[in-house]
Structures are given as C-alpha cells and as structure tokens.
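Checklist before submission:
- one chain only
- standard amino acids only
- sequence pasted in full

Submission:
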Amino acid sequence: MANSFTQIGDYFVSAIDGNDSNAGTADAPFKTITAAVSAVISAGDTIMKKIIVGTGVYNESIISSSTSYRFWFIGDGNAILDGSGLGTSYGFYNCYAAYIQNFTFRNYSNVSSGNTNASKPSLIMDCTIIGLSGAHGYNTTSYRSTYQNCTFIDYGGGGSGYYYTFTECMFYNSISIGSTLRYYCGTARCIWYSTTNGTYIAGSMRRSSGFDQSFFSPGATWRDYEYDSSTYYPVQHFTDGWKEQGSGLGTYSGTQKWRSTSFSMSMNDNLSGSNSLSSDLATFTADNAPYFNSSMLPYQKYQANMGPATSFGYNADSTNILHTDGGATWTNITESGAGFYISGSGDPQSGSITTTVLDLGTSLPIRRIGFNWRSTDPNTMALATHPSGALNHTPVKYQYELKYGNSTPISTDYKLFELGTQPKVDTNGTGSGQPGFDSGSLSPITARYLQFKLTLRNNISGSS
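Returned file contents:
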C-alpha cells in the first residue's frame, strides 16, 4: 500500500499514524519531529538532511544538541507546530542554518532560539506564524535569517539579534520588527494590513534598515531609530524623503529602500472560527484596484496567494452554503455561537455537512480550499472524510469531498481532496486527497459550480 507523502526526503514524520519506534521511512514514519532530529544526530552525518513532516499537530520544541548538524524541515500537508503546555517558548532551538518550510506556528513566544551566536535558522519560508511575540530568542549578532512568503498574524515583531530579512510576506495586525535592538534588518515586497481604524505601527528599525516595494493599509507608521528615536512617522514620510533627498543621503541610503504604496484594503476576514484562526483564511477582495494595478505588483509574488476569494462562516443565513438556512444538509451536526459540532452519542462519532451548490458566476480555476476548526485533541478529532486506514494513510490528511462542473445539476461524483492545498486530479480522475493518486500527472480543476461534503470525526487516528 503506497504512502501519501508528496515530498522526497531522508526522514519522515506523521503525528497521527507514526511511531517513534519506526525507522523513519515514508512507509514507517516517526511520530515526532524530535525523533527524526535524534536520528540525524545519531547517524553523525553533518550534510543537510530533509525531514518531511506530514499533516497533524506537533506539540514539541525541536532541539538540536549541536549546531554542527543541518536540517531542512518540510511540512507535507497541514503541519502545525504548537507550543501549548511546553516548558519552552520556541519552536526550534540551536537549529543553525536550518531551512523551515510550510508550517504553522502557534502558542510559542519565538519561532526559534539557541544558546550560541550560531543558532539561527537561515530560511523560514511558506509558514504561517500566529500570535508569536518574535522571531529569535537569543541575541545573535551575526548570521542572517530570511523569512520568505510567510504570513504573520497578531505577531509582535520582538525577539533579539541582528540581520533579519522579510521578503514577500504578509503582516496581518502585526509589527514586522518592534525592537530597536534589531540592527541591519530589511523588508521587501511585503504587505501590512490592519483592522485598526486610525494609525498603527508597522515597524521599527535601526541602521541600514528600510522597506522596499511594500504595501500598507491606511494609517501605517514607522520609526527609524537613527532618524528619530522617539517618533513614529507615516510610512509616506520616509518614501517622500527618499524621493526628495536621494538614495545616498543619511537614513535614505540604499538604492532600493523606502518605496511604498499606501492604499485602501478590504479583506474577507469575517470567517468561521475565532480569533486568529479567522485571519489565517483572510484574503483580499476584488475591489483593491490600487493594489492589483500597482506598478510594483510584478515584483510581488504574495498576491498570488492573496487574490479574491469566496468565503463562508457558520452564520444562519440564506446565502451561507454551509448552513441549513442556505440549503445545506446536516447529519449528526449541531451549531452554537462558536461554530459547528458533532452531535449524537457513542464512540467513535462523525457528522457531515453537505453544502448546497455554490455558483461562482463563471468557470474559474480553483486555487485553494481552506477550513478553520478547533479541537481539544487535534490528532484524534479533525475534519477528514476517512480516518487513518486504507483510504487515508501515511501521512493522514485532512480530507474533504468535492464534486464540480460547469452546469447543474453536477453530474460528476465526489472526489477526495486535501484541505489547505490546491485541488488537483490525476489522469485517472483521482483526487489529490486520496491515497494512490499519481502525483506526477496532477492537473488543477476549473469549474463554475462546486458542492462540498465535509465530515467531522473524533477518530481520525483510528482505522476504516
């Protein structure tokens, strides 16, 4: 029975159906990332190793006993790093020059930390960082960390050390850098969005720091410590100064610094879920013409993930395809002020929501399907069509069913896809959320009409 990992690596991890007594292969993955790190160190190989981490919640801090080892951590699916209840305050420790890709961080103080100057990861990419205070917890005075194509939600911009670069990132109700001790930092091609009515702090930098080709919702302010250590100025103040005084003078040094565009934004951020979980799914609406028409946009890759989107919450409304008031069918599902719940008795339990047909108005490419949910035991209770077993295995995925077409009624059958990714089908018509799909022949789907079937269950770690 083939496994469902889509990435090639040296060691494999699955929180839901792995075991730390396994060999760490794709067919027999570890359960924790810590076990994979220990395997690398035990082997004594200092060449960079890829650790592939499957869908699930990883309640751990990943610690390297030496900065001599090199790691590339890759989330293959919905991989969530959660610091709840831990005695540590960081996601990674002493993982010098590591690459960290495609994870969600929550319930830590910092992304990383260490006990030496050479303890910082070098590249953090495609990650979502929710509610953290800062980046690195140790005062490193050398070595650069680059955050690329990351989303920061309710992020404090704190931490210690020099040399941080943020490129192609989104700061949602967040400060990029909040400490005046963060020297030689820069942001380029980033977006700041705040739900605050009025002014808000976008960043505070020191020594050769600035923002370039960046976008700000109205009210953004910035402090440059060398320019004025006590005052936050509108971002346009620095852009105007750069234009007027030239790129070689004082705080405006650097030919690519201080270019910005401030514009009115609107986003779909009133979504199902609560607090920062809703923000994780927030997307630009189509009416942001100054953004989509900006001459800087060709350099801005993040817009590909932040384009116009359709979204639904749990509100009782005739336009909500998830609610019975909007035509949905519920089986063993009830609602409350905080969302949808499984109803009924017995163990295991499951419930499903079959939506009414969603009309997109015209045939469109489907780029991503996301869903917010909370669980008191996330590696047992989750949104998934099938539990661990023949139809969902190694690593287990958060699945949903979708049928689609360009006419109604939709004549195709439901196919399985994975939440948080772009739905694709292979040449056999198999959905990309089903074990055994051909990952080498996948094609995106395009459709006008969509209908979903979502299953909530409390035995995702069980068997079919």
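Reviewer check: The first helix runs from residue 33 to 43.
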